[in-house]
Design brief:
With 185 residues, the chain is mainly alpha-helical. The chain has six helices and four strands.
Length: 185
């Protein structure tokens, strides 16, 4: 017979394990996406509920939306790296860029198929199936650059702390301005 979560904790059933700060976690059912305010130890405090329809494209949870945007960002960086490499190919001694055929084909493809309009996987599939060899070669290079950039160059810690620092600074500034306006009138 199945126990409630509280009863399962009391009788020691295996589907419940101690979670962070000793709180029980019921592994028998999927938890709702509820986020508690940072530092709030009161389990009876009202949670922040993340609505499932918070994005127009129905992406849920928000972390999945962030992951999709990160993939798009990395693909955009890779495209720009490949274009920059092609602009400078054989151009060590000149100030004027010498554009290659691959550069021209990739920019033409990009103008006809903007990267933000398609999911980055669809965009790359379309590029790698292009009839022109230069477009297919560009797709392979973009895939390789994405891999190297994300695995070796992208500094997760720096950007996470930068985001937190910016949000914290914004929070302090806006709350200070709000308090000043509230005190004045």
């Amino acid at each position: 017979m199945a126990c409630s979560t509280a009863a399962a904790v009391a009788c020691g059933h295996s589907r419940v394990s101690p979670g962070p700060r000793g709180r029980p976690i019921d592994h028998g059912r999927r938890a709702a996406r509820i986020v508690r305010a940072a530092g709030n130890e009161d389990m009876n405090a009202p949670p922040f509920v993340v609505p499932q329809d918070c994005f127009q494209d129905k992406t849920y949870p928000p972390e999945l939306k962030a992951a999709k945007q990160l993939k798009l960002l990395v693909t955009m960086v890779a495209v720009r790296v490949v274009l920059a490499q092609e602009e400078g190919f054989g151009n060590e001694c000149h100030d004027d860029p010498s554009y290659t055929e691959l550069h021209d084909d990739l920019t033409t493809f990009l103008s006809q198929n903007p990267l933000g309009k398609l999911w980055d996987g669809e965009w790359l599939e379309k590029l790698i199936r292009h009839p022109k060899l230069n477009c297919r070669l560009a797709a392979v290079r973009i895939i390789e650059v994405r891999d190297v950039y994300l695995s070796k160059e992208f500094d997760w810690g720096l950007y996470k702390s930068e985001a937190f620092d910016d949000m914290d600074e914004c929070y302090k500034r806006l709350m200070s301005e709000h308090m000043e306006r509230s005190m004045l009138g």
